[in-house]
Amino acid sequence: MKSLPKENKIIVEGLNIVKKHNRPKRSGEKGQTIEVARPFNVSNVKLVCPKCGQAARVGYRVAEEEKFRICKKCNNEV
């Protein structure tokens, strides 16, 4: 959903959901409990390989002056 590069964090939809309690703003209103997605560190994110469909670490391969990312599980180019 959103990236925060200065803080080195990322917000992903449906992950790291926290319940937040809101007070009523006016008298007569009720308080609410809202579910909010909180940011977490980018180092905890894995890439999903399009070929094998699994979350995998990323490696690099250099061929003919070009650098490619590869999936560590199936060893194919990502």
Write structural notes for this entry:
There is one protein chain. The strands form 4 sheets. The chain has a 3-stranded antiparallel sheet with strand order 1-2-5, with no helix packed on it. The protein has a two-stranded antiparallel ribbon with strand order 3-4. Strands 6-7 form a two-stranded antiparallel sheet. The chain folds into 2 domains: 1-44, no CATH class; 46-78. Strand 1 (2-4) and strand 2 form a beta hairpin. It is elongated, with a radius of gyration of 20 Å. The chain has no helices and 9 strands. With 78 residues, the protein is mainly beta.
Distance between the termini: 22 Å
Instruction: State the assembly state of the protein chains.
Output: single chain
- In percent terms, what proportion of residues is strand? over 45%
Mean pLDDT: 90
- Can you tell me the overall shape? elongated
The overall number of domains is 2
Sequence of secondary-structure elements: EEEEEEEEE
User: Helical content, roughly?
Assistant: under 10%
- The total count of strands amounts to 9
